Structures are given as C-alpha cells and as structure tokens.
C-alpha cells in the first residue's frame, strides 16, 4: 500500500495521463526502519524477508510434523510441493544423487515462491526479490555449491573439461573452452540473479503504475469530468497484469530452482 501512496501522491490527473513517483526507486527502497532491536534496524524489506522465512518454516512444519494414513488437504499440498521439488527437479535433473540437494532446492523454491507472491499479496504489494541483493545472494550460493561440488567430484579435471571440451571438434575447443569458462565462473550467477530481478521489477512497476493511475483517475471524476474515463482501461489492464503476475511469480521461482539444479548437475556429471 505504501507504493500506491508514493505513486499517487504527486499525481495531477488534470495534467498527467499516468501516475508515477518522481523517482521509481521510491517503489523499491525502504530506508526508514519499522523497528529496531539494539543496533539492528528492521526496514520493510528486512521484515518481509524474515516473514517469508517464517512462512516457509511454518508451511513445512505444520504440513510434515505428523504422518497420517490419510493426510489432510494441507498435508497433501505440502507433500505435493516436496515431491515436486524432489522428483521433478532434484532427482529429475541431477539424477539419483539429487536426493542430497533436495533440502537446499526445496528451501530455495518455497522461499522464492513466497517472496515473489508478496507482489500480489494485499497489504504488502512488494516482491522482495525486486531488490537485487536477494537474487544475487541466492545465485552466489548456488554458484558456490556447484563449483565446490565440481572440484570435489572431479578434482582439477573439472576445470580441464571446461577449458578443453573433448566432445567439440579440436579446432573449436579453445574457443568453446573460453566461452564455457567465462559462462561457468562469471555469467551463470549473474544471469541467474538478473533474470529473477528484472522480471519482478518489471511486474512490480506495471502493477503499481497501472492500478494507481486507474484508481486516481476514476476517483477524480468530480474534478476532471469525462477525462476520468482514462482510468478505466488502466485499471482493467492492471487487473489483467495482476493475474499474469501470479503466474510469473510461480514460474520465476521454478526457473531459478530448475537452473540451480541444472548447474549442480553439470558439476556432478561434467561429461554431460
């Protein structure tokens, strides 16, 4: 809701055609702490990050704490989520060894799912993954895992297979090797983070500006008369984007987790 106030505060429906803050960074940066514990300030972003963590922990705890012959509907939902990550992502991509990476991939998928869905949660309307620090941290964590696994499983041959890929014609190996070296150790964590960040930023901007513009124009009918009809298509389009962003939130959590599994698989089985 704070983003809506920021976007509409300086809006002049008589002169503007869409409502927007002077600086769109205001929609993402929350520097004023909600509260402090000693020297630690809890801004809105920090609070929502901890809230996402608590939601994930509660989801798993209450869904898996009791084994039932006939699980409840909530239990079925939790088991379905765990089974999806375990069977379709971890073991489906990495192979039989994927079981040991299930806790990491499951925690990542559920955290990103909750963090992304904050964008369409009434009263919050802010995806914390639209702050670059969170996608970067998770992508670097994935990078550390697949690099460590690569050296642990294959030793120095892990780098040698990247620099000199034997499946490529010998005349092109040096070129492909350079590309793969840069891609594996530099571009993978960057592209993984930017993909998630860019999608959530774009969705957050569109939702905020369209819905705010629609609401401001339609509520100003007494001041601007027939011009207020401009707000109707903005608001309808915003509602359409709202539904679309639910799909995007789920899809981006899945893609980030899937690519993390793919990168780990490339270290476990570099010959593939």
Major sheet: 2 strands, antiparallel
| Count of distinct strands | 2
Overall pLDDT: 84
What is the helix content? 55-70%
Please tell me what the overall shape is: globular
User: SSE string, helix = H, strand = E?
Assistant: HEEHHHHHHHH
Terminus-to-terminus distance: 48 Å
User: Could you say which structural class the secondary elements and strand pairing correspond to?
Assistant: mainly alpha
Strand content: under 5%
Rg value: 23 Å
Notes on the protein architecture:
With 272 residues, the chain is mainly α. The chain has one domain. The chain has helices spanning 2-9, 44-64, 73-94, 102-117, 133-154, 157-163, 173-219, 221-224, 231-268, and strands at residues 35-37, 40-42. A hairpin with a 2-residue loop joins β1 (35-37) and β2 (40-42). α3 packs across α4 (102-117) and α4 packs antiparallel against α9. The radius of gyration is 23 Å and the shape is globular.
Give me the secondary-structure topology.
Elements: H1 2-9, E1 35-37, E2 40-42, H2 44-64, H3 73-94, H4 102-117, H5 133-154, H6 157-163, H7 173-219, H8 221-224, H9 231-268
Antiparallel strand pairs: 1-2
In short:
This protein has 272 residues and is mainly α. It has helices spanning 2-9, 44-64, 73-94, 102-117, 133-154, 157-163, 173-219, 221-224, 231-268; strands at residues 35-37, 40-42.
Provide key terms for this protein.
globular, mainly alpha, two-stranded antiparallel sheet, 272 residues
């Amino acid at each position: 809701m704070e983003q809506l106030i920021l976007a509409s505060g300086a809006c002049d429906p008589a002169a503007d055609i869409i409502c927007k803050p002077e600086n769109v960074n205001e929609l993402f940066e929350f520097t004023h702490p909600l509260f402090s514990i000693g020297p630690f300030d809890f801004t809105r972003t920090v609070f929502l990050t901890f809230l996402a963590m608590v939601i994930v922990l509660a989801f798993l705890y209450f869904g898996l704490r009791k084994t039932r012959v006939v699980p409840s509907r909530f239990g079925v939902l939790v088991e379905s989520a765990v089974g999806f990550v375990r069977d379709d992502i971890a073991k489906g991509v990495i192979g039989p060894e994927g079981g040991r990476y299930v806790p990491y991939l499951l925690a990542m998928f559920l955290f990103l799912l909750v963090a992304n869905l904050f964008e369409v949660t009434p009263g919050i309307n802010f995806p914390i993954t639209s702050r670059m620090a969170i996608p970067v941290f998770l992508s670097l964590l994935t990078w550390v895992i697949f690099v460590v696994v690569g050296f642990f499983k294959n030793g120095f041959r892990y780098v040698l297979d990247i620099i000199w890929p034997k499946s490529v014609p010998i005349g092109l190996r040096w070129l492909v090797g350079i590309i793969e070296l840069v891609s594996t150790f530099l571009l993978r964590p960057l592209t993984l983070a930017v993909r998630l960040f860019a999608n959530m930023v774009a969705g957050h901007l569109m939702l905020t500006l369209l819905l705010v513009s629609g609401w401001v124009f339609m509520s100003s009918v007494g001041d601007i008369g027939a011009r207020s009809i401009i707000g109707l298509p903005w608001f309808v389009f915003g509602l359409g984007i709202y539904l679309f962003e639910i799909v995007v939130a789920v899809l981006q959590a899945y893609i980030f987790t899937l690519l993390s599994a793919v990168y780990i698989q490339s270290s476990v089985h570099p010959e593939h």
